[in-house]
Design a protein that fits this description.
Elements (H helix, E strand, L loop, with lengths): L10 E4 L5 H12 L3 E6 L16 H11 L8 E7 L2 E9 L3
Parallel strand pairs: 1-2
Antiparallel strand pairs: 2-4, 3-4
């Protein structure tokens, strides 16, 4: 059973980790509102891009998020197998 993801005020979809700047912008926007989730590995229609997460990719995106936000953001990061590839879910709560 395939889950359906649709962008909303608390969900943003990105096709790959190469869009790290856009991921950070979305996380900042969510942190400044009610919190939210960015899912990397799905296109704008919610279809999987079948990305494979390379060794060190999660540490790299976590470091980019930390060093490019002030105050630093620390989202929860989860990798899930989805279709023929993997997706990365980044959850960020509302900032204080």
């Amino acid at each position: 059973m395939q889950m359906l993801y649709i962008e909303s005020e608390i969900l943003e979809l990105k096709s790959s980790l190469s869009e790290w700047k856009e991921v950070i912008i979305s996380l900042c926007a969510f942190a400044n509102k009610k919190g939210g989730k960015v899912i990397v590995g799905l296109d704008n229609n919610g279809q999987p891009t079948n990305q494979q997460i390379g060794y060190g990719s999660i540490e790299d995106i976590a470091n980019k998020i930390k060093t490019n936000t002030d105050p630093p953001l620390y989202p929860s990061i989860n990798i899930k197998t989805f279709a023929l590839g993997e997706i990365v879910e980044l959850d960020i709560p509302e900032s204080e």
